[in-house]
Design a protein that fits this description.
Length: about 675
């Protein structure tokens, strides 16, 4: 039936009746989708007894008692294979979290919306038509644009490892949250048309984003002079008060109302395309909460004037009432024409890579068994006794010499072994050796993925030990040990073992190792002054880290303090640049200078106060003090001659003998 309707929905010169019908065309498509979906639901409802599910131990008990009839009750469920059902949605979420577990958190969150003013749409409209009259055209064009977007990201690698966001400079290369320069007219017009939020708030209190008289999307944003990275959500993007505005209705909109975007993608697609940097896996949870939170429903209230049933009839009705997920799926369901057309044409609803294989987990003889009505129980038991879990244990018992199997968890087993669902054994995947290499890049290629290092390629082939054991140790320690003990454990692992990815473990457990530091930072909220001695000897990154940390701490009290250096705290940095600069191992003169405090961004916020009175210098040491100042200020030249009163030796040989003595 899908093919029948999809054929007639295709635009042809010989028949334009449907495409010229406006709202009737939309209604027709929705009714057609209902006709397509209803037979599927009807089959599921009528074939609940065809497939039965039970526990393996339950079948064993039935065989022992000769009780072969298995009642199914009145429950009607939607299987995971039914697109759009609750189990289908749950399965997608679990698959996504499995990919996150394997590949870590995503890097980018990109949300693209169709632009009904695309030339591909407007040029194909018929006489006196608007874009909303041709939702079929919008769906087809949007699908092509989506394919082009994926091609740019996956094949052309516009976001390759060179631009993998790690610092605020990397983020600024990918994401922009400001109005572009008006001289870039194409980009400026695109951002002004598609990437402006609202306006909402007092300018438009009836805006859909308004919740409890506040914007649920937290617009307008605060002005911020530099991008700030956090680990709990999206970063705070660069949003300067540079005077750029755009007219939106009767309101002037500045940078605070700009939705984050990528300049290149915005220019290429000319539509609303929100690009965000992911700081955690919360974006994955948000995706499945927002996109797969359930279908749109209408609100309705039904009342009946039928007299109430007597107790006997009511009790019988209660006993026969079933849990009908198929009916729940249909009740108050709201379907728009675009969704109906997309589903009828069988366009892809989602795609994941790599493939996720669901492994069965169960207790002994408690595996789920699916069997057809009338199938002999003995045959079901013979077929269902062997599961992926039991055969994994069997393989480990029968192949004690397999080192890969020994160190591979059950969840990672399909990466190295194949499961045959018909014969039900695990077999080793055949991994070809890298012969006939044409270049060095070929040596680092595994399954069409080019790795940065040979070590990464060897890990992908399963030739190296993984860090899973140390990961488990740190996970256990995080639950019971103090932050100091976790740090000691991590240091011992670095000292005595060779980790393949120590930075990954560090990033994963940095919060557990720094809990006490965060608590100490909280105490800084009540501090009125912070004093740091020998400041020039410390690397400028120390002060930049301290600045960010205090701002984060003070932001919990007052959001405006986040934009003030050191969160508004008075910081006294005491020291003399003539004494000692930061020590950089094997660092050049320029490297040492660039690491100094006066090269940091925080230096421009500092006021310099010079001490005039030498409280530690006695009158007898005044000459020596002046000599040291002269050396430090470079007033004595390159050849320094020590004052006669402090000389104890007459030559270099005398100095060596006095320091090291004789070894005769």
């Amino acid at each position: 039936m899908n093919q029948f309707y999809a054929y007639h929905f295709m635009f042809r010169d010989s028949s334009r009746v449907l495409h010229l019908s406006g709202l009737l065309f939309q209604e027709y498509v929705v009714e057609a989708y209902a006709k397509v979906e209803e037979p599927c639901l009807h089959w599921i409802r009528c074939n609940q007894r065809t497939l039965r599910a039970s526990l393996y131990r339950g079948l064993m008990d039935q065989v022992a008692t000769d009780d072969v009839d298995v009642p199914t009750g009145r429950m009607i469920i939607l299987p995971p294979s039914f697109t759009g059902g609750p189990r289908y949605m749950q399965g997608l979420y679990q698959d996504a979290m499995a990919i996150v577990r394997k590949m870590e958190k995503p890097d980018l969150f990109i949300m693209m919306t169709c632009n009904p003013k695309w030339p591909d749409i407007t040029e194909a409209l018929l006489s006196r038509q608007k874009s909303q009259d041709r939702f079929d055209l919008c769906c087809r064009v949007f699908r092509l644009k989506l394919k082009e977007l994926l091609h740019l990201i996956i094949d052309n690698e516009i976001f390759d490892d060179l631009y993998k966001p790690r610092t605020h400079e990397d983020i600024d290369k990918i994401v922009c949250a400001e109005l572009p320069d008006p001289s870039e007219k194409e980009l400026f017009d695109c951002v002004a048309a598609h990437m402006i939020h609202g306006p909402c708030g007092s300018a438009n209190p009836r805006c859909p984003c308004m919740k409890n008289k506040k914007c649920s999307k937290k617009f307008p944003k605060e002005f911020i002079s530099s991008t700030q990275v956090n680990n709990d959500g999206y970063p705070l993007y660069l949003c300067r008060n540079n005077g750029r505005v755009v007219q939106k209705g009767s309101h002037l909109i500045d940078n605070r109302w700009v939705v984050p975007y990528n300049k290149y993608l915005c220019k290429v697609f000319n539509c609303h395309i929100n690009v965000e940097i992911c700081s955690s896996i919360q974006s994955v949870k948000y995706l499945y909460k927002y996109v797969y939170k359930g279908h749109d429903r209408i609100q309705a209230k039904l009342s009946s004037k039928v007299p109430p049933m007597d107790d006997a009839i009511a009790g019988a009705a209660q006993n026969t009432t079933s849990h009908d997920e198929a009916q729940q799926y249909l009740d108050a369901r709201y379907v728009f024409a675009s969704e109906a057309f997309w589903r009828i044409c069988e366009f892809r609803m989602q795609k994941m890579y790599p493939t996720v294989y669901a492994l069965q987990v169960h207790d002994d003889n408690m595996q789920s068994v699916v069997y057809a009505e009338g199938e002999p129980v003995s045959d079901v038991m013979d077929r269902s006794a062997r599961t992926a879990l039991t055969e994994w244990m069997y393989y480990n018992r029968e192949h004690p010499e397999d080192e890969v199997a020994k160190r591979t968890l059950y969840s990672d087993f399909p990466s190295y072994y194949m499961w045959n669902d018909s014969t039900r054994p695990w077999s080793r995947r055949h991994r070809l050796q890298c012969i006939g290499a044409r270049c060095y890049e070929y040596l680092r290629t595994v399954d069409d993925v080019v790795y940065d290092t040979y070590q990464s390629a060897a890990e992908a082939l399963g030739l190296l030990h993984s860090d899973a054991e140390f990961d488990n140790d740190l996970t256990l320690a995080s639950a019971i040990a103090s932050p100091c003990q976790i740090c000691e454990l991590f240091a011992m692992i670095l000292l005595y073992y060779e980790l393949s990815q120590p930075d990954v473990l560090f990033e994963k457990y940095i919060d557990a190792m720094s809990d006490d530091i965060r608590l100490e930072n909280c105490s800084s909220q009540s501090a009125s002054i912070i004093i740091m001695d020998e400041a020039p000897m410390m690397h400028r990154h120390v002060y930049e880290m301290l600045d960010r940390s205090i701002r984060d701490v003070m932001n919990t009290i007052d959001a405006t303090l986040e934009n003030i250096p050191f969160g508004g705290k008075v910081v006294v940095m005491r020291g003399d640049f003539r004494k000692m600069l930061p020590v950089i191992q094997k660092g050049s003169h320029s490297m040492i200078i660039s690491s100094s405090l006066n090269q940091s961004d925080v230096w421009r916020h500092c006021s310099i106060f010079c001490l005039k009175t030498k409280v530690r210098v006695s009158p007898k040491q005044q000459a020596w003090s002046e000599f040291l100042l002269a050396v430090g200020e470079g007033r004595v030249g390159l050849n320094v001659h020590l004052p006669a009163e402090i000389q104890r030796v007459s030559s270099l040989l005398d100095l060596i003998a006095r320091v090291y003595g004789t070894f005769g």
